[in-house]
Design a protein that fits this description.
The chain has 354 residues and is an alpha/beta fold. Helix content is 37%, strand content 18%. Helix 1 links the parallel strand 1 (2-6) and strand 2 (34-40).
């Protein structure tokens, strides 16, 4: 098949959703498909969103982000950086896939020669200020593919449907336990994103509350220089390599996840694979694979005190930490990219045959 993925802009920093698309692109190409990734420089959305993107672009430039694509696919995948999503730049194919609400309308408007239209849902993205515009994209005549059951459930509430869930996974050759030693010098590790939906204020409040109780060490991973003010004792690491990130996970005892809404939560699984015990806000995405008191400790969304209590409980109970860690490692093993790609490939082929 000739398969085209259309991404939501020129991506020069780490983004979980884009990483997932690259995973599918690489693996589908390895199976013999002709795969193209489209990175548009400009997407027609509302004026407020355009202004926000311009501000972020300037912020990235001032803070040293590279002006190159962050992800490099395998040699069998074609990459096109184009001006806009239009027939002039999109190749003919059998399947063309919108990866993000920003791309849905222009992909839906492409001619039939570009392929059967699909909408890859990695989140129910109504947390954007363009909520009405996002909801309208779900009405487009495209086959929707969802990564998680909670996304399918949300669509059903508004009378729509999606195929799936196909589930995300992580690469076991990238994230794993490097040493069986129980010595982990860092108490808490977390990832940061400036958007309110990711719970950045909850993250800071939780760490501060913990620090009042215990002399903890904390590390925060971020794609961009944080716009929120962290205490000086929190170590901020910008855009670590996979090897560096794996070492950071392996040196940490607890992974803290404060997001209010998450499509799936790849960093959580990465940390689990590296032996971290997880404390998380119970959003829909992580509840696809986390079970309270089995492989993680969950807290109500925005409940900073419960998050802090759970972390303290783990830090003061080594046997609990080990049990949660061991169960987390086993959980991650159940999710395999080959199985996910099998499902994705089957959906594309069946829809094209219909």
């Amino acid at each position: 098949m000739r398969i085209t993925f259309v991404l939501p802009g020129f991506v020069s920093i780490p983004m979980g959703g884009v990483k997932v698309v690259h995973e599918y692109a690489n693996r589908l190409a390895q199976r013999g498909h002709n795969v193209t990734l489209i990175y548009p420089l400009r997407i027609q959305t509302n004026a407020l969103y355009q202004l926000k993107k311009a501000i972020i672009k300037l912020f990235d430039h001032l803070n040293g982000s590279e002006k190159t694509l962050y992800y490099t696919p395998g040699p069998k995948v074609a990459v096109l950086v184009v001006k806009t999503i239009s027939p002039k730049y999109i190749p003919d194919g059998d399947a063309v896939i919108a990866a993000g609400w920003q791309t849905a309308v222009p992909v839906a408007e492409l001619p039939e020669s570009c392929g059967k239209k699909f909408y890859f849902l990695q989140h129910f993205e109504t947390y954007f200020k363009a909520k009405k515009q996002v909801l309208n994209t779900f009405q487009l005549p495209m086959t929707k593919i969802a990564i998680a059951q909670w996304i399918i459930d949300e669509l059903e509430k508004i009378g729509l449907s999606a195929v799936g869930p196909i589930a995300n996974a992580i690469n076991s050759d990238e994230y794993f336990i490097e040493s069986n030693s129980s010595e982990r010098n860092n108490d808490v590790i977390a990832t940061y994103h400036h958007m309110n939906v990711k719970g950045p204020k909850d993250l800071i409040k939780t760490l501060k509350l913990l620090k009042k109780r215990k002399n903890i060490k904390a590390t925060v991973i971020s794609s961009r220089k944080p716009v929120h003010r962290f205490p000086a004792w929190v170590k901020i690491v910008l855009r670590p390599s996979v090897r560096e990130l794996r070492k950071l996970y392996n040196s940490s005892r607890v992974f803290l996840h404060t997001s209010h809404s998450e499509g799936w939560g790849l960093p959580v699984m990465e940390a689990m694979a590296c032996g971290c015990a997880v404390v998380a806000a119970a959003n829909g995405g992580v509840q696809e694979y986390l079970v309270h008191e089995k492989n993680a400790l969950l807290a109500p969304i925005r409940d900073v005190r419960s998050l802090a209590d759970n972390i303290q409980l783990i830090l003061e109970n080594e046997q609990m930490r080990k049990t949660l860690s061991e169960n987390a490692v086993e959980t991650v093993k159940k999710y395999d990219w080959n199985n996910s790609v099998d499902k994705f490939e089957k959906i594309l082929e069946q829809e094209n045959a219909s």
